[in-house]
């Protein structure tokens, strides 16, 4: 395996018993886990190819306990890895052998529901779907809906800036979070944003969302909720070629139509999903589009006709329109279950996450097929077509020597391809450890150092989630140095502070 984590600090490991005792004093009862057997469930996250038992797990129940834990770890120089539900597909919650794994699963309460201001205040351990469940009785819902929404926590969504099938129209997590409570590594409790639409000053909330646990530990989240649309209908459209489906996506957006969701699956994913959920997907097509339109009934009817016409111009061979809510949900059932369904095709799969300009979709899919032939590994494509967020699932068998390495190399080439065509390394899964060493493909040294300076402003000792995101983690003192050449500072006219 190509990804390497930082070498454990032996001096910290030698103090393990003392660290465990100090944590037990902060979180009494069953809040500290240190036995080898009980640590096993925490040895990995959604990137299961990598496993590493943590030094100790602590499960606080209050913000005050989180603050005391972080204050202690800062004072003692102990690393901390925050963890929500552990569904991260980029290794964002991968533990370290010399670190405290800070599990936020007991922060599972809905604190406040405010229908007048259309917001909900929750603790970070509340699952994504539970927010919608809490408000749907009054006709509201929470828009971001990752495929793992039944399990993933809102705190993890904030860390990774998660998306979902409805992010095309309603935005990612960052567009739906109004405020957070954050505990810094020094144990200081801060609030960014709140119940107002926009906070004053710098957009530090925008810095926190998507920061992957590198800046602090979120202990409370205020999210926006939306009224359920009057009407929601979906089209299930089959195409004889993936390129035709990709062109249909581009033409739909170019026509000024922004669907609530627009998802694509290729033949392997279609067959796997249909075998798994049996919802009636057509099996004689190479690509399947699911297009959902919502809003007033008259608007939906008009847009359905528009999308259907665009699909026909692009050679669609099958087209179904949901006639009721049950059928709409059935269309989505296969897509929501696509990741586990693809597990039927091979013993293992490696889920990638990159984003490209929509207009390059046909070209990128062709080049991915060529890479599949080159590496001798199958690939099933399931992705958010409307915003160009690809999720290629690379099929391999970890029991076959060298296949994991090949799958990783294949995945790296896909991500390089995304950057090459004007896209980015990730859309919603984050960088974590999976894409860490590919960051220089997208950012130069100056860019990376600037990003690390933000990290240093929050965590000068680099104790929070180290080994993630940055391929080379500089010491904060090094990043603060000023370059002097021939006795002169660069840009001497700029004031220094």
Automatic annotation (TrEMBL):
This is Glycolate oxidase. The lineage of its organism: Bacteria, Pseudomonadati, Pseudomonadota, Alphaproteobacteria, Sphingomonadales. It comes from the Bacteria. GO terms for molecular function: (S)-2-hydroxy-acid oxidase activity; FAD binding. Residues 50-228 form the FAD-binding PCMH-type domain. It comes from Novosphingobium fluoreni. Signal peptide: none annotated. Keywords: FAD, Flavoprotein, Oxidoreductase. InterPro entries: FAD-bd_oxidored_4_C (IPR004113), FAD-bd_PCMH (IPR016166), FAD-bd_PCMH-like_sf (IPR036318), FAD-bd_PCMH_sub2 (IPR016169), FAD-linked_Oxase-like_C (IPR016164), FAD-linked_OxidoTrans_Type4 (IPR051914), Oxid_FAD_bind_N (IPR006094), Vanillyl_alc_oxidase_C-sub2 (IPR016171). Its cofactor is FAD. Gene3D superfamilies: 3.30.465.10, 3.30.70.2740, Vanillyl-alcohol Oxidase, Chain A, domain 4. Its EC number is 1.1.3.15. It is an enzyme of class 1 (oxidoreductase). PROSITE patterns: FAD_PCMH (PS51387).
